[in-house]
Specification:
40% of the residues lie in helices and 17% in strands. An eight-stranded mixed sheet has the order 1-2-4-3-5-6-7-8, sandwiched between helices. Strand 5, helix 3 and strand 6 form a beta-alpha-beta unit. Helix 2 packs across helix 3, helix 3 crosses helix 8 and helix 4 packs antiparallel against helix 5. The two termini are 15 Å apart. The mean pLDDT is 95.
Length: 279
């Protein structure tokens, strides 16, 4: 039986990370804390989490937040992956000291690094860590990370968005449509300066290279129940990435979400997460 307050308006709050950066979050529901970690561009008001959070809030006390540099959160330079882990630590302390975690795409990699650092997540679920690793069946996406970082440095926000979208497989014909969809292009360009943050979290994992030893060691140090999900319609390289990650994390289990792609439907992933976190 689900809790009735899952559809109530979210409670808005903020925490201060170790380096003084303000991180804005919102909470829904009650019960066991669950923190949602977004992928590239996304935040608590844009992307998959705004639709997923109310579904999960029928079962958990769900926290979604603006990763640093996005939405209403601050962005204290210089960037370091450790600071994003400290942001999660501050959210964990606000949640009572321990929580579940669900991370999607680059948010999955941040969740992995946070769990490996010793943060008190009781269980973690990750969906499609976006790694293009050696051993994957072709085709692999092109490695344009350095090019995108340079575009960001030069302030070429639109070019950086377009190049990233093409790198991850968005058809060229879809880009003009994204430009005319209300609010979409402006939100993408507003957050594009955080793409280098995502690249730093993912490490050197583009263009068919082996899993970096430091990432393998981080994954091997995780000793909490872990679920690694991948969409049934996602490309082979993402299936290979999910298999590699699941093999590297001791005791991790894998789940193929039938009919889904990297942009997983909230209605498809929510029951998978509820089952995992309540089992």
């Amino acid at each position: 039986m689900t809790k009735a307050n899952g559809g109530a308006p979210p409670r808005i709050g903020q925490v201060v990370s170790r380096d003084g950066t303000t991180i804005v979050y919102e909470q829904r529901g009650s019960g066991q804390p669950l923190i949602l970690v977004d992928g590239a561009f996304c935040h608590r008001g844009f992307g998959p989490m705004p639709k997923l959070a109310p579904l999960l809030a029928q079962h958990f006390r769900v926290t979604s937040y603006d990763r640093r540099g996005r939405g209403a959160s601050g962005d204290t330079p210089p960037y370091a992956v450790e600071h994003e882990i400290e942001d999660l630590q501050a959210l964990l302390e606000e949640a009572g000291g321990s929580a579940f975690l669900y991370g999607a795409s680059s948010g999955a990699m941040l969740g992995i690094r946070a769990a490996a650092s010793g943060l008190a997540f009781e269980r973690i679920a990750i969906y499609e860590p976006p790694l293009a690793l050696a051993g994957s069946p072709p085709p692999l996406p092109p490695d344009r990370v350095a090019e995108i970082i340079q575009m960001v440095r030069e302030g070429r926000r639109g070019d950086a968005v377009k190049t990233f979208m093409r790198m991850v497989g968005v058809p060229a014909i879809a880009l003009p449509m994204m430009r005319i969809m209300p609010g979409v292009w402006s939100k993408l360009t507003a957050a594009v300066h955080t793409l280098p943050y995502d690249f730093a979290i993912q490490g050197d994992t583009s263009g068919g290279k082996p899993l970096p030893p430091e990432l393998g060691q981080a994954m091997a140090s995780i000793h909490v129940p872990t679920l690694v999900g991948v969409g049934g319609k996602s490309p082979p390289y993402l299936h290979h990435a999910a298999k590699t990650v699941a093999s590297a994390i001791p005791g991790a289990t894998s789940r193929v979400v039938a009919g889904q792609t990297h942009n997983v439907s909230e209605k498809a992933i929510a029951p998978v997460l509820v089952e995992f976190f309540t089992s």
